[in-house]
Design goal:
CATH architecture of the largest domain: 3-Layer(aba) Sandwich
Distance between the termini: 50 Å
Number of domains: 2
Bound molecules: pyridoxal-5'-phosphate
Helix content: 25-40%
Number of helices: 15
Shape: globular
Strand order of the largest sheet: 1-7-6-5-4-2-3
Order of helices and strands: HHHEHEHEHEHEHEEHHHEHEHEEHEH
Strand content: 5-15%
Structural class: alpha/beta
CATH topology of the largest domain: Aspartate Aminotransferase, domain 2
CATH superfamily of the largest domain: Type I PLP-dependent aspartate aminotransferase-like (Major domain)
Number of strands: 12
Length: about 400
């Protein structure tokens, strides 16, 4: 099966007997059982079934099974948001005194989260360029996770998963990839050696801006050293599945950031058209990026799919058909010029989201990074004149014309 067929037929949901073609929405909190003895077994994971929607729900499970299947993972845990997925994935592994190595050009929310972690004694060590060499050079005995955004938002710096994985594997440290901006339509990071994949499903997976959500997919292949990863020691019986076992039975269950059934339904619905959308979004973005690159009123254009991008070879070597995603950034010359260009656009919404069906634009320095330090902004390639564009499904000719008129003197 190829990708689009896989999305529709790869993961059969056999639990529903009505023949419903989509997972029904179980919008309920609790599940009743015949007897206390049965509920006891369900609670203790000794019998199949559901008890309480924070811990498990059929609509959410259907989405999790689809995500695990499409990413080629062993299991998936859905969360209330992408931030919840990142928090839970890391807190499942890390304890006080542990360190994360990550790129400095990170999504603003993740940067903020890593600041919060400092208060709990978990330290993030940032490297500017996430190459295998710089990551390995930064490792020490406290390093317990390497975290990377596949295509950074909004720096669009692209990591080579295979090269990073070669180092993390050799050093016995799990590689966690935030694949939100790449999506499984372009790359399955687990096949390239990543150990855990996280997504903000609010973006491309949902795809139409209708549901916040996140998901953690466990490759189930990492060989946990339970002396080194003390946080997982209690779950050593689960072996390679210790990470997901601890998430489900402990961290994720106790922190409580479950995905709502309604959002799981909307995310499953969106997932079915991911392949088609990404194909179109990527080709439109490349066309728009090329036209902006030729525009004398635009100071510079950053899109990893452009020949001029330093990340083009990373894109070509890993991504399906060398597709570079649907985010581009451009520099307008000054903050005033950036605001003017944004305000003149006819079709783009000024909104802080990506991966919508509509084109969205934002000035990151005054919004997502308003609370970041100058150093954090510089590291994330957030300049005062930078505009981020999340290209939508409008006809590319219309977008090209719209940006040209907005950039005109
Ligand atoms: C949006 C985003 C997140 C956070 O996801 P939410 O669903 O908004 O919590 C994390 N990582 C990346 C790369 C994102 O774009």
């Amino acid at each position: 099966m190829k990708f689009n067929t896989l999305l529709l037929h790869g993961c059969k949901d056999t639990s529903d007997r009505t023949g419903a073609t989509l997972p029904p929405i179980y919008q309920n909190t609790a599940f009743a059982h015949e007897s206390s003895a049965i509920l006891e077994r369900v609670f203790d994971n000794r019998a199949p079934g559901f008890a309480y929607t924070r811990i498990g729900n059929p609509t959410v499970e259907a989405f999790e099974r689809r995500m695990a299947f499409i990413e080629g993972g062993m299991g998936a845990v859905a969360c209330a948001s992408g931030m919840a997925a990142i928090s839970m994935a890391l807190l499942c592994i890390l304890r006080k005194g542990d360190e994360i190595i990550s790129g400095s050009a990170l999504f603003g929310g993740t940067l903020g989260l890593f600041d919060d972690f400092e208060h709990f004694g978990i330290h993030a060590s940032f490297v500017e360029d996430m190459t295998a060499e710089s990551v390995e050079a930064r490792m020490n005995e406290n390093t317990k996770a390497v975290f990377a955004e596949l295509i950074g938002n909004p720096g669009l710096n692209t990591v080579n998963v295979r090269e990073l994985a070669d180092v993390t594997k050799r050093r016995g440290i799990p590689l966690i990839i935030d694949s939100t901006t790449a999506t499984p339509a372009l790359i399955r990071p687990l096949e390239h050696g990543a150990d855990i994949v996280v997504h903000s499903s609010s973006k491309y997976i949902n795809g139409n801006g209708s549901a916040i959500g996140g998901v953690i997919v466990d490759g189930g292949k990492f060989g946990w050293d339970f002396e080194k990863f003390q946080a997982l020691k209690e779950y050593r019986k689960a072996g390679k599945f210790a990470f997901t076992a601890r998430l489900r039975q402990d961290i994720w269950r106790n922190f409580g950031p479950c995905m709502s059934p309604q959002n799981a339904y909307l995310s499953s619905l969106g997932l079915e058209t991911l392949g088609l959308r990404m194909e179109r979004l990527c080709s439109s973005t490349l066309a728009l990026a090329k036209s902006l690159e030729r525009n004398p009123n635009i100071a510079s254009v950053n899109y990893p799919g452009l020949d001029s991008s330093p990340y083009k070879s990373s894109i070509d070597s890993q991504m399906k058909d060398g597709q570079g995603g649907s985010l581009l950034t451009l520099r307008a010359g000054s903050k005033e010029r950036a605001f003017r260009l944004i305000d003149r656009l006819k079709y783009a919404h000024v909104a802080t989201n990506i991966g919508d069906v509509r084109t969205l634009v934002i000035h990151p320095a005054s919004t997502i990074y308003a609370h970041s330090t100058e150093e954090q902004k510089r590291a994330a390639s957030v300049f005062d004149d930078l505009i981020r564009v999340s290209v939508g499904l409008e006809d590319p000719e219309d977008l090209i014309e719209d940006f040209a008129q907005a950039a005109a003197e």
